[in-house]
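Exercise (ungraded).
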Amino acid sequence: GAVVSQHPSRVICKSGTSVKIECRSLDFQATTMFWYRQFPKKSLMLMATSNEGSKATYEQGVEKDKFLINHASLTLSTLTVTSAHPEDSSFYICSARVMGNEQFFGPGTRLTVL
Amino acid sequence: GNSVTQMEGPVTLSEEAFLTINCTYTATGYPSLFWYVQYPGEGLQLLLKATKADDKGSNKGFEATYRKETTSFHLEKGSVQVSDSAVYFCALSVRDDKIIFGKGTRLHILP
């Protein structure tokens, strides 16, 4: 089956620093990638949708200047949390999709901001 | 708007017990319905889906039937195993757009 990887799986950083999370589709080319955020005991919240070579579409209430998304190729998307603060601590999950088909999810990245 | 409501967990059952996890939805349109499973330390995996009313999705002994009249998509399995322990998410998608997830239900199966 299709595999999506995320790196790193866990990251701890100091408040005010920036953190980059990578999402890769390992064995297929993804026309669209999605970034989700999962709070404890809550559902996955879609943050943004990105298509290769174009700007990401952010969901209402998500700060685009804080959560920078770059979809540089058909197999790689990155999420950069800029000037991270403790309230940004969360579990971030990406997914990748070939147009019209199923979304394949990565294993997630646990971000802890001290 | 579109939303999914599923039963709160955790659900704890003994091996070989019958499982039901309830899921209801609201949607402005004709949604596709999904159940995803997240095993410990892994990403979400599609467990089963149904795209129209009365369709039954099935996989690995799990089943769910798309009930338009009750706007439900309850997950069932006749005899659970310890390896079924995971978090289960009900979800919907309208016109192959973004997926809306429920809050997830953690399932513990005791040997």
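Further reading is listed at the end of the chapter. For now, observe: Residues 54 and 66 of chain B are 5 Å apart (CA to CA). The two ends of chain B are 41 Å apart (CA to CA).
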